[in-house]
Specification:
7 helices, alpha/beta, single chain, 6-stranded mixed sheet
Length: 215
């Protein structure tokens, strides 16, 4: 009887101690500068980009690779996030890394087959990823041919990201594709924040220079 009581008391003590111990959070090493590519893979990206003369998706992939290869990779980590297959889905292809080969492999696999454009949600998730990994500077390079088709508010998500993370220098750079109407370009430009800007598909060299200077 005494042994049973002693065992019960020891067991209760163990449970009490274990309930009071807070699990250690996994440590993620933060990088000084993180640049995240937000990629539009919606079906409309198959259309011809008037500036480059090829499909928007092909031009976008070429420009993303060209841009990544010219960044000061020793000073920034790069990541890749693309639209998911529905309005509630986002695909993180590559967490912040300096592995250009892996970035190239992920870019080459991107198609333009999605029926939706969850731009706001993708920006939100890219921002969350960046906040986890960035220590000082977070750059979002948003590659798209339009706006959100899922009732999201992309401009609001960027504003929230900046407001809630004032310890970071956050900039968003928009690369617009196949923009036919001034209204579409007008709706995309408000997504620019910080030292970012709006660029057409033939203005990548300007963007490279600005990104490297911001690092």
């Amino acid at each position: 009887m005494k042994n049973s009581l002693r065992f019960a008391l020891i067991f209760a003590l163990i449970l009490m101690i274990s309930s009071c111990v807070t699990p250690q959070k996994s440590h993620i090493k933060k990088d000084d500068v993180v640049t995240i590519f937000v990629f539009d893979n919606s079906g409309s990206m198959r259309l011809r980009d008037k500036t480059s003369g090829v499909s928007s998706i092909l031009s976008a992939k070429q420009n993303a690779l060209n841009l990544a290869s010219k960044l000061k990779i020793s000073h920034t980590k790069i990541a890749l996030v693309e639209f998911g297959k529905s309005c509630k889905d986002v695909q993180i292809d590559l967490a912040p890394s300096n592995n250009l080969s892996e970035f190239r492999s992920k870019i080459e696999k991107i198609g333009a087959n999605n029926l939706t454009s969850p731009l706001a949600l993708t920006i939100k998730e890219a921002g969350n990823l960046g906040v986890i990994h960035a220590k000082r500077v977070l750059n979002l390079v948003i590659i798209t041919d339009g706006t959100d088709s899922c009732n999201g508010h992309a401009q609001k998500e960027i504003a929230n990201l900046v407001r809630e993370n004032q310890h970071l220098k956050i900039s968003s750079f928009i690369i617009g594709y196949n923009i036919q109407a001034r209204d579409t370009e007008r709706r995309l430009k408000p997504l620019v924040t910080g030292n970012g800007g709006y660029y057409r598909s033939n203005e990548i060299d300007k963007l490279v220079q600005i990104l490297n200077e911001s690092n």
